Predict the structure.
Amino acid sequence: MEYRGGGVSRGASTPAGNDSDAAGPSTSGQYGPNTVTDMEPVKHVFHVVTDKLNYAAMRMWFLVNPPGNATIDVQNVEDFTWLNASYSPVLKQLNSQSMIDYYFKAHQANSDSNLKYRNPKYLSILNHLRFYLPEIFPKLNKVLFVDDDIVVQKDLSGLWTVDLKGNVNGAVETCGESFHRFDRYLNFSNPLIAKNFDPHACGSAYGMNVFDLEEWKKQNITEVYHRWQKLNHDRQLWKLGTLPPGLITLSRRTYALDRSWHVLGLGYNAGVHQRDIERTSVIHYNGNMKPWLEIGIPKFRNYWSKYVDYEHVYLRECNINP
């Protein structure tokens, strides 16, 4: 959602397709009443980035279902010609034969026993677009990033005025009893990790982040990300996914947002409290149990499904029902 106010171009990016925990549909998150767009909708632009498989359908969907007076900008990741293996070490790694073998050859002696890390969704560059936001949106200086498995329940306009105090990222910390710290994601038996990071440091949530792109460029964050990706070419620092490199890249560069902004875990943790869900601005179905799947946690499904128009002709034709 690009916010065109006060002479400043600010925005929100929704790279759609895959999140850091489980693949979701190529669509933006759900936005309920009283969202960021209600205050001054004409000043907002929702940026959606998807792949060539979904690009045409995504554009047509928003042409037929425009979001009121707000604007939708849909982009195709394949059009980012600058994003190639010569520039991006992660793209080079994703296209390597060893990485493809890791995912698709079932009987390797050195295969990882944890099937979570063998999920081919990690081969998608859409997972890594969050580390290239300044290149994708060179004219924006601030973005609100949201994953495709979130529901916005309340007005988010207050996030634009949060002082990040020189940090690049604004995010909710994940140090609660059901969340994790650095030692859950990084290999602290490796001396490079042990030397540079605290195993008990709080992780930060992904899925709803405020990114200061001016500070990002000043601190050369994309190059920091590239450096660590190169060091992890053999997957000895962390396994796969975007959360570990995100924690590393933005370590000591993240401002802790109030927890009332973002509640996580609705895609795997049935113990998330109803009171936390109802008072938060954004709920996040991170995990495998997405609300649009049959395996979704039943008591959490309605927070998503109540915004779905099941009478829509396309949904009926696709036999999508409550």
About this structure: Residues 90 and 229 are 6 Å apart (CA to CA).
